[in-house]
Amino acid sequence: MAETSYDFLAIERKWQARWERDETYRAVDDDPRPKYYVLEMLPYPSGDLHVGHAKNYTLGDAVARMMRMQGYDVLHPMGWDAFGLPAENAAIQRGVHPAPWTESNIANMKRQIRLMGTGYDWRREIATCFPEYYHWNQWIFLQLYKQGLAYKREAPVNWCPVDMTVLANEQAEGGVCWRCGSPVERRNLSQWFFKITAYADRLLDDLALLEGWPERIRTMQRNWIGRSEGVTFAFAVENNDARLSVFTTRIDTVFGVTYMAISAEHSALDAIVTKKHRQSVKEFVDSLKSKSELERTSLMEKDGIFTGAYAINPLSHERVPIFVTNYVLAEYGTGAVMGVPAHDERDFEFARKHGLPIAQVILPPGTAAEAPLDAPYLDEGRLIASGDFTGMSSQRARSALADRLVALGLGERTVNFKIRDWLISRQRYWGTPIPIVYCDEHGETPVPEDELPVVLPSDVRITGEGSPLAHVPEFVNARCPKCGGPARRETDTMDTFVESSWYYLRYCDPRNSAEPWQRRITNNWMPVDQYIGGAEHAVLHLLYSRFFYKFFHDEGWVSGETEPFTRLFNQGMLLRFGEKMSKSRGNVLGIDETVERYGVDAMRLFLLYATPPEDTMEWTEEGINGRVRFVNRAWRACEPFVERAAGVSIAELPSAADAEEKALLRAVHAAIKSAIDETTSRRFHFNTTIARLDEYVNGLTGLAQRNPESTVLAYAVHVFPLVVAPFAPHLAEELWERMGHRASIHMERYPQPDPHALAVEEITLVVQVNGKIRARVQAEPGLNEATAFELAMGQPGVVAQIDGKQIRKRIYVPDKLLNLVVS
Ligand code: ANZ
After folding, report:
1. Which of 78, 103, 168, 197 is deepest in the core (most CB within 10 A)?
2. How many Å apart are CA 748 and CA 184, to the nearest integer?
């Protein structure tokens, strides 16, 4: 008796256990097949997975399976970004230690990922919170330190008052904490930095290599790095020895300067402010002290106060007042700006407010005379009122004025970057300890490599106030590696983005205890061919990882490509009831309930089918039910025929006896072609492939009813599990086994599309002689008249009618009819 209902629960569990036992998805290090490394961004083990996560992993899994079935040695690993604040917050709120909290979350999420039938090589699993991993995080820190790329300095930093820690600039974008959304404050603290600015040029230039990345992400990185070319030159200060250097990208507007603006932290401020203005300037500067950069520049109105001092424009020799302002940044360019209200938005606003002159020096193209400006003119044009430079185009003037300043020894051409060094110290517990000690005699001293790892103590009190490690004397009290005398250990831990900047290398060689990875092995796997993850990491993880990889390259620890991720795919979000899934909205659909109710394969098919993967998709009841029906129909169409199918070779295309069989063969090969095209193009629009699979199953069902003995049917049943395997791996495996195959279907080769099967339906050409039908000819569509005539003359019934007569006329209706008029 054929089984008619598909017991997805039993079948899915059975195969998951079998795959695990057989290590079906093992990636082989030295293998003659070409390699393919597909990676989803490693998750933070927050506790529970929902179907939104499943969308991400299902796409990666379908890609990995397609590539494996196309003959690649596929590396598809999974691990845990396991350090970070939520574990510490759980400790504060619920009194559980971060370590067991994290470990039980990992265990649960791993169980859920297995439930999803995702084919990871679990032998390579990593968790960044284990000493075996963070040992190498510390080691990398020391190598950066050796090269002067890790350093400690006092600087104004972003402080999150809620998370009680400092943040990198990338983590305080928009003036708010990336984790909790609270506005960040500014504090002067001594902190550890990684010198990502040393790589600014290369990080920018190499964006050109990343053709397989979404343009949007490349643009975000370009803007974040923010290269700008300009001129740096000095203004003298009247009655004072101080000089004020400015950086400008618009030296062509130098004759339009009507004031100078300096930052509240400018080092020359004290020297130039006049006695009369000292008190008011101090009050203004004090009012800005706790304001972050973003608050000052974006949230506050442009403001400033006169210092009482004047500067002399070295080219126009004009005397202009100097203001302290909230909008000039201390840490960009020189911290001082020449104010040109006629041609800059901020300067215009500032000049209006303070009643400063607005002197136009650039005329828009095509205008003759200067008219009063009611808005700044920002574009290119022709110079006016600019001494020798009057009449020049602004573009030419930029170059000529730069030459003049250089020739006079007053300035130079400079390049500035917006990107700042990466602040990596965190005053938190659950992170990698920074391997540094402080000795009274020898000062800041790195921990020797053979003493790594500096292990995070487990006995700590986590209160959320101050750095927990600072209160653990057994941790703090150390020996100086140089003199053996007493020393104090660094109590800051590293930003968790440090661990995730190189984890993709560790997957290649995850159990190495002698070094972070062996070059021979990483050379085999790197770079990651296809990276899959959310766009929210555009200027965080994706930038940091590129920086690290370039550093590793310079050190000779990786070779070949200088970029870690050849292609990047940003998948779209999954919504439910029109909103992003989240606990607070109460619209989360968990993995366990979904898998139990609908089955994994149905869930996977729905997640891939609803929209192209980069689009936002809505979870709907009809949608998932549609895929449940698909799985059941496929089962009912195939299962009763497995034995007959096993007897039919899939190596050869059977011939179709009628239009229905022909249509089924077409559907089979259209599905194959779609899956292969979507993979090789790296578009991954498997939604179209699954639509083809619907037609495939329709064809199977129809033919099974009408002609269950059909060889074409048996062939199509035999091929079906191969075609569906990357998308519904359990269903595929079960049918395959029932056909008598012993090895896993996931090790089989994906079928090739057959052009004969795909050829468009033939047309029937009717041939008449003097209006009477004498033959019907099957032919490919698109016949021209000459070919139609040739075909007609090959028909005995036609030739017999023409015999001995003359063809007077040919009437041809393309692809339908040829009438020969004879007499
Ligand atoms: C005069 C001027 C005239 C400017 C004009 C622009 C237009 P990017 O492209 O962002 O590098 N600037 C320089 N240092 C600054 C600082 N520390 N804080 C705030 N603003 C600063 O822009 C460079 C321009 O930003 C410079 O060119 C300077 O204003 C301003 F019609 O100089 B400009």
Report:
1. 168
2. 54
Residue 540: C-alpha distances to residues 54, 173, 355, 590 (Å): 23, 10, 42, 28
The vertex-309 CA angle with 307 and 314, nearest 5°, equals: 130
Domain final position from 416, 450, 480: 416
Residues 768 and 752 occupy one common structural domain? no
Structural domain that includes position 190: 137-195+421-494
Under 8 Å between Cβ of 222 and 215: no
**What would the pLDDT profile of 404-436 be if each residue is shown by its tens digit?**
999 999 999 999 999 999 999 999 999 999 999
Tell me, what's the pLDDT at 762? 73
In a domain, 507, yes or no: no
Q: Whose CA is nearest to atom 27 of ligand 1?
A: 248
The pTM of the full predicted model, rounded to 2 decimals, is: 0.87
Q: What is the mean pLDDT of the chain?
A: 94
Check: CB of residue 465 under 8 Å from CB of residue 424: no
- Ligand 1 neighbours, Cβ below 6 Å, are 228, 247-250, 253, 328-329, 332-333, 335, 337-338, 340, 343-344, 416
Asked if residue 780 and residue 753 are part of one domain, the reply reads no
Lowest mean pLDDT among 171-175, 543-547, 610-614, 733-737: 171-175
Beta bridge partners of 337: 261
Task: Using the mean position of ligand 1's atoms as its centre, give its distance from the Cα of residue 337 in Å.
Answer: 6
- Give the chain's domain count: 5
Does any domain span residue 612? no
| 600 within a domain of the structure (yes/no) | no
The answer as to whether 278 is a domain residue is: yes
Among 223, 224, 329, 332, name the best residue to mutate to test ligand 1's pocket (greatest count of ligand atoms within 8 A of Cβ): 332
Atom of ligand 1 nearest to the CA of 362: 31
Q: How far is the CA of 333 from the centre of ligand 1 (A)?
A: 8
